[in-house]
Amino acid sequence: MRAHRTFHLLFAHLNKLPEHTITEEVREWDYGEYEGLKPAEIQAINPGWFIWKDGCPGGESTAEMCHRVDCVIEKVRGLS
């Protein structure tokens, strides 16, 4: 939903929105066991945690999230 709202804000100046598709692929990072926690709360559980290095237990790894986003970018560019 946040991505959809951002899309509308980005193109609010146009008379007609560009063609688009709502898809689950454009979602926030799945934080798994850390879902709903603030960064300081995660640090209390796992000192030194860095999402880009450690990912999220029970959620998406950095590689999985990057792959998902790369696939969306390819679709937007019309490459697949």
Quick structural summary:
By secondary structure, the chain is mainly alpha-helical. The protein contains 4 helices and no strands.
Keywords:
mainly alpha
Could you walk me through the main structural features you see in this protein, from its secondary elements to its overall organization?
The protein is mainly α and 80 residues long. Helix content is 45%, strand content 0%. It contains four helices and no strands. It has helices at 2-10, 39-45, 51-54, 62-77. It is elongated, with a radius of gyration of 16 Å. The model has no long low-confidence stretch (mean pLDDT 90).
Topology:
Elements: H1 2-10, H2 39-45, H3 51-54, H4 62-77
Strand fraction equals: under 5%
* Content-based structural category: mainly alpha
Instruction: List the total number of helices.
Output: 4
User: Biggest β-sheet: count, sense, barrel?
Assistant: none
Oligomer: single chain
- Regions with pLDDT < 50 over 5+ consecutive residues? none
The count of DSSP E runs of length 2 or more, i.e. the number of strands, is 0
Average pLDDT over all residues: 90
Order of helices and strands: HHHH
Q: What is the overall shape?
A: elongated
Radius of gyration: 16 Å
The rounded distance between the terminal residues' Cα atoms is: 24 Å
Helix content: 40-55%
